[in-house]
């Protein structure tokens, strides 16, 4: 029965907390949304998590969602926004920017974007190199070696709280140093979405 319903009818049922309507919307669109996010993050796991996060949010806000257009447009915009926030949050993660630029921006129609992205990667590398020695060491052990706070503390012979504080300060410094990365990243993503017709 639910498969035959229009999106508008499903949304009306969803506003009345109809779980079956929610399931139908999920099954109807999750694959398309995951593919959309995959084009941005290049990670199947991240794509799945982001789509799930969006649907959890939709269920929580089910009584207050007011659509001003097609449901699919709302869903695509939602996953795009969450994906961009995810990238902003992970902008200083080891090799994240490089992986994104190599596999994504290179595929766009504008080779200038790829070149700009490589320059931004170099800026990030220089920002890491300019960190105070101990802070840089903590950051690199965390990002390059994927060590936990405890492992870094044991390795360097310092307290876990010191590791946590050094890493937090390193990330603040890097985000401040490469703030333009996010702007260029959004430009790149906008180009990708335009090129792929999403």
Describe this structure in words.
- This protein is mainly alpha-helical and 198 residues long.
- The protein folds into two domains: 2-89, RNA polymerase sigma factor, region 2, helix turn helix motif (Rna Polymerase Sigma Factor, Chain: A, Orthogonal Bundle), CATH 1.10.1740.10; 96-195, Winged helix-like DNA-binding domain superfamily/Winged helix DNA-binding domain (Arc Repressor Mutant, subunit A), CATH 1.10.10.
- Helix content is 75%, strand content 0%.
- Helix 2 (19-41) crosses helix 4.
- The longest helix has 23 residues, at 19-41.
CA-to-CA gap between the ends?
Answer: 30 Å
Give the helix tally. 10
CATH class of the largest domain equals Mainly Alpha
CATH topology of the largest domain: Arc Repressor Mutant, subunit A
Alpha-beta classification? mainly alpha
The topology string of helices and strands comes to HHHHHHHHHH
Give the rounded overall mean pLDDT.
78
Rg (C-alpha, Å): 21 Å
Q: How big a fraction of the residues is strand?
A: under 5%
Concise summary:
This protein has 10 helices and no strands. With 198 residues, the chain is an all-alpha fold.
Compile the SSE list and pairings.
Elements: H1 7-15, H2 19-41, H3 44-60, H4 71-89, H5 96-103, H6 111-129, H7 133-143, H8 149-156, H9 160-177, H10 179-195
Helix pairs in contact: 1-2, 2-3, 2-4, 3-4, 5-6, 6-9, 6-10, 7-9, 8-9
Search tags:
Arc Repressor Mutant, subunit A; 198 residues; Rna Polymerase Sigma Factor, Chain: A; 2 domains; elongated; mainly alpha
């Amino acid at each position: 029965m639910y498969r035959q319903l229009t999106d508008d009818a499903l949304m009306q049922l969803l506003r009345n907390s109809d779980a079956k309507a929610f399931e139908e919307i999920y099954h109807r669109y999750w694959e398309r949304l995951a593919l959309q996010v995959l084009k941005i993050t290049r990670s199947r796991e991240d794509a799945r998590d982001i789509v799930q996060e969006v649907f959890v949010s939709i269920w929580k806000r089910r009584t207050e969602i007011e659509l001003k257009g097609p449901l699919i447009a709302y869903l695509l915009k939602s996953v795009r926004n969450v994906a961009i926030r995810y990238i902003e949050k992970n902008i200083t993660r080891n090799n994240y920017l490089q992986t994104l630029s190599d596999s994504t921006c290179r595929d766009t129609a504008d080779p200038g974007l790829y070149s700009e992205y490589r320059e931004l990667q170099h800026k990030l590398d220089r920002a890491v190199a300019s960190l105070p020695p101990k802070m840089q060491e903590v950051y690199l052990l965390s990002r390059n070696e994927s060590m936990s706070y405890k492992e870094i503390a044991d390795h360097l012979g310092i307290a876990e709280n010191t590791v946590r504080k050094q890493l937090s300060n390193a990330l603040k410094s890097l985000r401040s140093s490469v703030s333009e990365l996010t702007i260029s990243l959004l430009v790149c993503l906008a180009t990708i979405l335009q090129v792929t017709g999403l």
